[in-house]
Amino acid sequence: MSILAETEQQPAGHREDEPVRLVLAGCGAVTKLYYAEALSRLQSRGQVAVAGIFDPEAKQAALVQALLPSAKVAASFESLLAMDAGIAIIASPPRYHADQSIQALEAGMHVLCEKPMATNCSEADRTLAAAAANNLLVATGLVRRQFPATRSIKAMLEGGLIGRLRSVSCFEGGFFQWPVASMSYFSFSESGGGVLQDIGTHCLDLLTWWFGEPDEIHYADDAMGGVEANCLVRLRFGGFDATVRLSRDWARPNLYRLEGERGSISWTVNETETVEVALNGSRTTGFASFTNADGRSRDFVDAFCDQISGLVDAVRNGAPLSVPASAGRNVLDLVEGCYARRKLMDMPWLGPEELLHITACAGIRQ
Amino acid sequence: MTGTVAVLGANGFIGCRTVELLQLSGWANVRPIVRRPDTLASLSRFAIDAMVADARDLQALTAAFAGCQYVVHAVAGDARTIVDAIEPVYRAAAAAGVLRLIYLSSASVHGQSPPPGTDETSALHDDQTIEYNNAKVHAERRLGQLSRDGAVQVVVLRPGIVFGPRSRWTGGFADELIDGSAYLVDGGRGICNSAYVDNVIHAIKLAIEVPEASGRTYLIGDLEEISWADLCRPIAEALGFDLATISISAPLSFAPSWKQRLKESEGYRWLARSLPRPVRSGLKAGHAEWRKAGRNATGATMAPTVMVSEERALLHQCQTKLPWRKAEHELGYQPAVSFEEACRRSVGWLTFAGYPTCGNGAGER
Q: What is the CATH number of domain A4-144+301-323?
């Protein structure tokens, strides 16, 4: 596997003052909620031009076209790739990510693939190989890395603000409310897993970005023939443990808490600019707001803008990708590592009769 | 194996546990039916034959009930949904050839604080101050009218305060303790007509199995007579709270607060549905921080003003233990899980769900 394709400067395919033309595959929830608005903002700034969009359901494509009127609706994915564009955004359901990314690369387009970049590592490797073979870039949509808040946490950790870490705890989730189009979303074959593969991808990516690769992985979930709605991950990083609890069925405060020997950092999930910092010996807890280097305030959609702009900048100017596909591949590897070590969570409300059957149910994957 | 049981409203607290228990015990084939695909997230833990159908959509329901011998109607919702769903559910069950429909009504049809001597024969009133109670009364009456045609056998269950994992009385009360909005009127000395969720499901199974149950209505409850303080104490202790600190006197009136009025308004509901999840999360987090900041500023352990609902005030002052003798005599119902065990399991779920319980070690089997 080579990551040459992620860093090598690419020849600019368009004049510097022209917007970069791109196409988008997948007009589901993530596109309607975020990509369409982000692309609309970037179009209005003259940075990109959306040449075409595609979704197998014409009604979904029409809804997105209403948000991006200049885009043509392609009748098929192949027709989309035949359009004059330099970048393809892949925002289809996860099981299409690898194949569509590879097809786009083979059609000569750079790719931004929504997370997860594939449903398993071998698919991710095929994508990276296709990128290398075609000398093109692949970025992965781990959008939280664009937040000033998460970037600032990384900087604070690297600067030793709270000293050596003692523990990390993360809770994420609540009642699942993502507007999925069908029940097939909740199948291993469609999504590659449950809550771990979904929001866990973001969470584990942040942890490995901040702390590096874990030394130990312990994992348990509540899947009993289907995909997990709850999971518990314990990762050992050098001298401290990180505990991750993810849920699709009950809300607790969505909070990451990093305890160090000199203080603590708390981050509310999806808060783009603010973190809470408490230093030992100080009576004050600070809510600190951060911006990126350009000083502009950023909302959640801006983070999508930034990840698209990042790829445009890499394509045009050879800038390094802020979230290369290798990051997407690494987090897939960690997710697979969790599933490989899978145990059943303790569910103390189950009765004796249920417990007799539970092991048999838990061993089957849908 | 009993056949195929459709659980309508399978994403709700009782429906979800019904599917889980029936599936894991192998008692029946289970078909969860939900209104939207996203609400299947929790039930997708199982390899299960689920369907999507709105409880008011006769055609979709008929298709969803196909091949099912039994339907458990556990749809929650506002008063209008409760009433409007009755006819389509009954007619769809008839069209699909369902043998028996188990309707989960509520002991609330007798009010939150029923008079002594109340049982299944007591007259029902639809002029109660709590809209939910009237809706359940109307739903039962409508079902009674429809079932006169004999197309589908109907059994109505009236459980009391159904508690357990994922319930408002367990997880919801834990949240209230943590955010400072928990209260017990008069120390929670009133009788709580508790019904642990597994006991309700035990009654559902009997209502399916016992031929003589057809056309009957049953109150369902736990074995023990307990108070509201008894119900809340294990949760408070698990989280390190003292119940004495949340006792308040009964309020004299129940004019809805601006916050309640806002929450019940159409505009608020539309906004809550429309905002993207990150925005909702952010607002919720901001509100929590605001509350926390307020508490820190005053140094108090509770929010300065607690909103007492009429429903809770009546419940907490209840003096009547509702009987389940009829279910005992006709169905052979005996609560399968003791109150003590029910509390142990509920607290166990709190630990699982990530609450800061005293013994939190949410671990692996």
A: 3.40.50.720
Hey, which residues 184-243 in chain B have their CB within 8 Å of chain A?
Answer: 198
Pairing status of strand B191-192 against strand B226-227: antiparallel
* A1 has pLDDT over 90: no
What is the Cα–Cα distance from A285 to A272, expressed in whole angstroms? 19
Q: Is B297 on the interface with A (CB under 8 A)?
A: no
Q: How confident is the model at residue B299 (pLDDT cuts 50, 70, 90)?
A: very low
Which among A180, A226, A271 has CB closest to B45? A226
Nearest to B35 by CA among B54, B17, B11, B22: B54
CATH code 3.30.360.10 region(s) in chain A = 164-260+331-360
Q: Is A295 on the interface with B (CB under 8 A)?
A: no
The fold of A164-260+331-360 is Dihydrodipicolinate Reductase; domain 2 (3.30.360)
**Residue B146 forms part of a structural domain:** yes
**Per-residue DSSP letters for B241-285?**
--GGGGEEPPPS--PPPHHHHHHHSHHHHHHHHHS-HHHHHHHHH
Work out the average pLDDT over B223-228: 98
Do the Cβ atoms of A48 and A76 come closer than 8 Å? no
CATH number, position B133:
3.40.50.720
Q: Across the beta sheet with A343-344, what order do the strands follow? A: A285-289, A274-279, A263-268, A255-260, A165-173, A240-247, A230-237, A216-221, A343-344
Using CA atoms, how far residue A313 sits from A35, A147, A317, in Å, is 18, 18, 5
- Report yes or no: A230 at the B interface, CB cutoff 8 Å: yes
Measured distance CA(B264)–CA(B273) in Å, rounded: 13
Among B116, B108, B114, CA closest to B137:
B108
Residues of chain A with CATH 3.40.50.720: 4-144+301-323
Over 80: is that where the pLDDT of B120 sits? yes
ipTM reported for the complex, 2 dp: 0.87
